[in-house]
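Researcher: Quick sanity check before group meeting.
Model: Go ahead. Protein one:
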Amino acid sequence: MKQQNSYGYDTTERADKNSFFISPSFIDVHVHFREPGYGYKETIATGSRAAAAGGYTCVCTMPNLDPVPDCPENLRRQLDIISRDAVIDVIPYASITIGRKGLEVVDVAALKDSVVAFSDDGSGVQDPATMLKAMELIAQNGCILAAHCEDNRLLRGGYIHEGRYAAEHSHKGICSESEWGQIARDLELAGKTGCAYHVCHISTKESVDLIRRAKDKGVNVSCETAPHYLTLCEDDLQEDGRFKMNPPIRSKEDRKALIEGIIDGTIDMIATDHAPHSAEEKSRGLAGSAMGVVGLETAFPVLYTELVRKGVISLDRLIDLMAIAPRRRFRLPLREDDRVVLDLDTPYVIDSSTFLSKGRSTPFDGRQVWGRCMETIYKGKTVYKR
């Protein structure tokens, strides 16, 4: 039985023979595949296979690499690896600034035809004048600027949310304003320049409200959040590096606002911010572990279990957030022969030891979920099958 969402796409169908669910494949506009430069954490080969195992046939890789893709020569190194090793579409970001140092804007025109957008992800652009110039150049070239919003002046050594858990366990906290303060600045600049502005991994209630009001004013803005922000809050934290990411898991009130944002359309899409690290780098607890968790192989089942099965949003809305809206915003094709086959009826327990990603650190390890990916079809060919 086919269904059609409010945008007119045929989104899902039930496969009568085996009762599995067939959907357009997913797209993740925010992943870290670590290559070139940090292949011990993840490679294009392992990351793209992990993505396929999660139902994705297109991912967009962030530029915190070595070398940084800030010029055609550096970008070519990444593109060559993608051409050789990727099993799905892997489309890179170029950095906003040279070396991701926040000082000098890259040559946008020289890079734009080979990338999905421009981002300094992992770092916020601290200087307003630099961000203004970047938005002007990116707008002139008809591209998208995707911003990691973080004011370094407000971090003060923090590494989890500045809230109840941090206070009770003597941890240094990251205040919400470090995120939403830069969003407020950038929304003003985007309104002035007309730049297509995308906000990465929002986590606070203030961020949702700012973006909602900017959309009402006609600012060309979109945003994403991640599964862990929609399904966890500081009450779920444990003294374990698998609960540490940037931005951090925040309060129950922030989670509620994010859910309201996906319901009313303020939040356009869900991205995983898949950020693998080595086991050793994630073994140092909340204070000492590297920031970042993996998410490609757990995103749909976690969201289907926590949001759809519990009646928070419809399956159609979840498919839009993970498959349709990201392609629409980033002008990427939705091919009829890119599909994912899902088992919505059989529960299973997430076991990170079975992941195809090199990364094993997930806050959802051991959780019972529904919605396992059974097969991923890319350009008409099976690239993953259980």
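Researcher: Fine. The other one?
Model: Protein two, sequence then structure:
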Amino acid sequence: MRTVCRHFLPLAAITAAAALALAGCGGGGTDETPGAQPEEVGKVELVHAGQLTACVYPYFAPYNFVEDGEIKGFDPALMGELAKDLDLTLFMRETPFEAIESAVALDMEDCDIASSSITITEGRRAKADFSEPYYYSTMGMLVSEASGIDSIDSLAGKTIGVQQGTTGEKWAKLNLDPNSLLTYESVPDQATALAAGEVDGIVNDVPTLEPYVTDSAHIMTALAEAEEFGFMVKKGNTALLNAVNRTLERVHQDGTYDQLMTQWITAASNSE
């Protein structure tokens, strides 16, 4: 199986509680190892025959990132397992996040599946079908020490950077003064703005912010409840959705999930 891919940033590991929660998502054990079934493979509709095409916005390490011209990370590794189960070649297509989370990329048949650390929300469920959750993440805010921010109540008059199209942006618009927000395309763009003093803080998933913690910036966590990441497929693509869920079940049961967590999440944290 060949992975065609398209700045690696080390990040912290998921919490033990989240890992335990994920372990429960795979479902109960069965007598045979789960995985795509022959009849299921035959029913999967693909944009390109013999190829699993996954849309990804690769600027969200350690889940998706570019290194040496290839898209790597936790999500692509899971997509590799799905492609293996389906006996397909994997192609990771770099795609703007707005086109992914809005399901436009799926509807336009740019890809078969969206794999980009997408939080499962009711609004997104209305546009596409989601797999079972494969990861749980917590939203946080990286703030400048000089800003004096130590709680949500101390954000009045502060300028906060958000990533376009994310649940972090939605949270900020609902909980903060919309006039205090500046929008950026990616986490690196947000971090650059914070370092330059353009904003007082930035909102995103805690693991993506941890590489940017310094003596002059720290993370204020627990802005919202833990979020569930899922893979998106086009509405009605039941065969592919079932195949994704069976692969997620398999990797939990045979230990592959834990190996990938160690390789992509824990290793990133230990490199700090």
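Researcher: One line on it for the slide.
Model: Confidence is low (pLDDT under 50) at residues 1-31.
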